[in-house]
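Dear U.,

For the methods section draft, I wanted the exact inputs and outputs in one place so we can describe them consistently. I've listed the two proteins in the order they'll appear in the manuscript figures. Please don't edit the token lines directly; just add comments below if something needs changing.

First protein:
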Amino acid sequence: MVCIGNSWDELLRDYFDSAEYRDLRVFLKREYSEFTVYPDMYDIFNAFKLTDYDGVKALILGQDPYINDGQAHGLSFSVKPGIEPPPSLINIFKEMSGDIGKSAPQNGCLEYLARQGVMLLNAVLTVRKGAPNSHKNKGWETLTDKVISLLNQRQSPVVFILWGRNARDKKSLITNPRHLVVESAHPSPLSAYNGFFGSKPFSKTNDFLIKNAIKPIEW
């Protein structure tokens, strides 16, 4: 029913064969036919397509896709080239500058990170236009919890970057001491000054990767 094109297909086969996913597909078919839903249905699994299981160095977990036209394309916090970066992404770039001294990229597309092993995953992979959390508790959370659990089982170290309460609630799934959890407030303007700014997630991630003889991320 789903063909990602790499090892995620086999690892997630049980979920994609489950009654829960069949029910989710029925729900999504109705939503896409009756409403505007993001991202485009062909972009839903981009986080998996661009970052294979064995290639994951870090996971950045978002909540659900952006809700406005032209923004979401299947990668958490990322927008398509040519689209104005939303406030949360602007704050991510500000922290990146303060942490590692890097200027903001020319656009808000984070595919360059996904191709380096940063899995940009939302807990819920679809959303109705203008309606945050509209696809919450429909079955996506089971999939993304399984992804976190599978990465937790890996022997090769992974950095789990958890921003905000919803992401930090997943910390209980990360039990393997080989891994690093980097957590803080969400980069949203509503919370960024409550612990996101100054949290240094990018340097912490690279320091950990280098310590474990893994090529660091070019943020």
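Second protein (the one for the lower panel):
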Amino acid sequence: MDQTIYIRMRNRSQVRKEDKVYLKDIALIIADDEVLEKLKTLEIYQVKNEDRNIVIIDGMKVIKRITNVYPGCEVQMIGPSQTIVEVIFKKKKFSLPAFLLIWFLLFFGAALTIMNFHEDVSMQIVQQKLYTMVTGKKEIKPLLFQIPYSIGLGLGMILFFNHFFRKRINEEPSPLEVEMFNYQQDIDQYVIMHENKESMKHIDDY
């Protein structure tokens, strides 16, 4: 069989404990119809009990596995050369007390942070001076500025994070999502560099 098979390794894939990892789980495949379905179900790796939550599958081992099954084929790799396979263990049950505890910690922590920031920049004094400049009167609690400012602060946070509960305001990613993406990229690169050797030992058995 003389044909060319094109594969593009996925950046990340998820499987459950003790699952088999097939080629379709870790790569996009372009090949003739006569071998495409068989390639999709080609077993690349078997998740073992001793595996941790991350397994690195290298593209060279995938090519070796394909050529062992289809010796006459030429395999061309496009894109990433490795796939991070995340082993998903049994999900923990939802804990209402833990959820409430974390919610209270985040809520009061954020409130204290905002209040301390306003105290550091003397926000109340600034609003008092602005109120005096606009109205010509002195007021200890210039609600004319404080109420709209508080509403605007909440609306600004919603616009900044680009979410209102689970509803996205527009298609642009928020700064937080961008930072989380960059953080995930750094984590993936670290995992590839430090976990690759150990994972390859297990894959070599195939």
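Candidate sentences for the figure legend, describing the second protein: DSSP finds seven helices and ten strands in the chain. Residues 103 and 109 are 10 Å apart (CA to CA).

Thanks,
Y.
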